[in-house]
Fold:
Amino acid sequence: MFMARKTIIRALLLTLILMSGCATAPDKTTPSLPEGHPPTSKGTEPPVFRNAQAEAYASYMYGLMLADEGRTRDAIGFLQMASQLDSGSPRILDQLMQIYMGEGQEAEALETAKKILQMDPQWTDAHITLGQIYLNSDRPVDAVNHLEIALELAPEQTNIIFLLADALERTGDIERAIASLQELADSEDHRAIALYYIARLHFKSGDTQAALDPLVEAVLLNPSFLKGVAELGGLLESEGRTEEAIRFYTGYLEKDPEKTPVREFLARILIREKRYDEARHHSEIVLKEDPRNLGAQLLMGLIEAHDGNLEKALEIFSEVRQIAPDNFEMIVQIGVLQRQLEMYTESIATFQDAIMMAPNRYEPHLNLSVVYDLKGDLQHAIESAQTALALEPNRTNIRTYLAQLFMRKDLFGEAEELLRQGLEDSPEDTSVLYQLAITLDRSGRFELAADTLKKIIEIDPQHYDAMNYLGYSWAERGVNLDDSLALIEKALKIRPDAAYIIDSLGWVYYRMGRYEEALEQLLKAGREMEGDATVLEHIGDTYDRLGKEDLAIEFWSLALKADPGNASILEKLRSKGAIETAP
Structure:
């Protein structure tokens, strides 16, 4: 009959008491704990022996029993006592070392492991423990030294092999790390996990092609590793290596075309890359094999939405919601589509459903804010955005959006305070700084805004929006025109296709009196920003300077149509006696 460890320990303690034949009253001869040890709790006093070795083993056993009961502080005290009574026993120290490691006391475990190796240089557990500690403290070379010794002493312990592979990888020796796992990969018991880690090592070394074969086999042997396929592809995408991620998934499917989840991973990336036809192809293959695959149906809905078929997308999502009413992501997507279709009442109700389902998720609150904003309900938009930010205070996009809402209610002080709070933890967050510059400018403090824009450009010399904003603002004021031109030309080198920066260039030329050059750039911007009131007004201003009054009136009239009630444009048309012709 199997006997629990605690029962065995109690039996051994009883045996030691009976064998000693000389137990004494605990109040007279019980040995005191070494200095600094915690006192024992009531009812934890061990038997007392005149024989030091018997007392050491009794304390050792009692310490193990306390450790089994989860009373690690008391256990440590008795094991330390046992070690002092029997100072030549590495086994007692080994148990102490294991408890230290379990409690996260790595400094104590380190010193204990070193003491063990002084007694017995071939003690496997001490080498393993030192290997783990050195790995945790980023000393991989020292870890390798101890783990290689441990592996020689106990080649059957697979955990040593994985630790050694990890240590070798951290030293940069990927080849040896792979070689250390290859023996496990050749064994039937550990083949799947060894192949999976070999694939990850190839992947981390940048050889995604070499990672494919072991990864495919690992998944075939153990389907749970399919999550790792998604993780690795996602890692490539997060590093901006999207094309590599696509090739990675495509290569996987060439070797194992039946893995429909991989098609879903691939389709999601293709959608984000706006390669909708390819995404549709993979999604349709999945649905052909499994018509009720919710993931593929969701992807088809996203594809239809991105293709502009919003009603069809909403129909797909609504059908899927009937099948999976508790799918949070699905409900959010439906709310977004309803918003895009200007079904604001329905969208609000959908996002409120999502909030009921997951009250601590920020997404429905933020989306609800956008819907309220579109409806012109700024107060409720602000309240929903504030809730979203409270749930995710580190999300810059929520903070800057909320600041914009404050500004639209002329709450410049609240907007500035909100943005400066965000800068307390991240003083070089250029997104927050950029919004702060806009807030300062709109509240009539342009010099402070200009200083903030200059700071952004110092932090990020490629921040073309800050360059454009500062350059255009100087041009509007008719100051620093040479510097303005230099900034905007630099911004255009970074974003040569940005029509709003082209408009800024044209406006600088206008302010410099270079009207022909200004018109060329402004007309170019107007072709890209059709119907933009500012660009149309700029073109009209330029034609006026060139003496082409009819064309000036024509473009000012178009600008007024795009922005009815614009006082500046109205005044220009009145000055030409053409207000009657304006729409």
Residues 1-44 have pLDDT under 50 and may be disordered. Residues 185-257 form a domain with the Serine Threonine Protein Phosphatase 5, Tetratricopeptide repeat fold (CATH 1.25.40.10). DSSP finds 33 helices and no strands in the chain.
